[in-house]
Amino acid sequence: MNPIDQILNNFQIMILDGAMATELENHGCNLNDRLWSAKVLMENPELIKQVHTDYFRAGADCAITASYQASLEGYKERGLTEKEAIELIKKSVEIATRARDEFWSDSNNQFNRPKPLVAASIGPYGAFLADGSEYKGDYLLNEDELVVFHRERIRLLIEAGADILACETIPCLLEAKAITKVLKEFHGVYAWISFSAKDERHISNGETIASCAKWLDGEEQIAAIGINCSSPKFITSLINEIKVQTTKPIIVYPNSGEEYDAGSKTWNAMSSSEHFTTSTKDWFKAGAKIIGGCCRTTPNDIEALTAWARK
């Protein structure tokens, strides 16, 4: 059964975790690297486990793995063998699963919340390029080439035991179609597709979110449709655009409100945790059923979300 439906059949909302990479930076990691958080899978996997545990303690119903920028190509460029790259990609799921299982066995709140899911992060092709193109979608690859890029990593993450795939920060419908085509090779596997958005109506490459939702609505293995890694100020409007075109659950996990400069790889302006928490209530009222945070959000943000969502 669709694992998201299993949660939403019993709870009004599914709570995601928050940022992985920027939280690792808060713990002292230097992620100014093409591999981003996937670099920490090599260097300090126990710290990734700690971040997952922090989010579970804050109330998250789902851990998104540190595999966003992990790919066979990326690790091989770093000098790893294919076998080593495969082990690291699978390790991202194994770490999150171990954190979830240990937390759940020690939890005193099992009757107030669902058993958390492990969602294997599938970043876009632009994340492998590490040139900011996940916020543009101006790829030179066609759909079949994108299928080839995504197929092996998806297979490995499924084999590692992920409950669901988190196909996130997708900048164009072409890439969503390619991922959906790969999914059909794996019976019974579900994924959510979350796009990056440039404004209140359009995803990063300029296509409307409404047209993306309409196309994905007919795809059985797509468990939810939504937006991540985008400005919170666009989210309510985007939810309204999506819900006209689909009956699937709507998922949103935007950034904290700070703006990212892909060129300098720095964040600008400050965000208010209180404002983010208030916004999550508005997104739920607008129709989002799966809510969390992306870059620069923290366990404190997820704890504040849980405080009103689990009343």
UniProtKB/TrEMBL annotation:
One GO BP annotation of this record: S-methylmethionine cycle
Domain named Hcy-binding is located at 2-309
Matching InterPro entries, A to Z? BHMT-like, HCY_dom, HCY_dom_sf, Hcy_S-methyltransferase
Gene transcribed to yield this protein:
mmuM
The protein in question is named: S-methylmethionine:homocysteine methyltransferase
Q: Which cofactor does it need?
A: Zn(2+)
Which domain of life does this protein belong to?
Bacteria
Identify the residues that bind Zn(2+): C229, C294, C295
Keyword Transferase in annotation: yes
Organism in which the protein naturally occurs = Metabacillus litoralis
Keywords per UniProt: Metal-binding, Methyltransferase, Transferase, Zinc
One GO MF term: S-adenosylmethionine-homocysteine S-methyltransferase activity
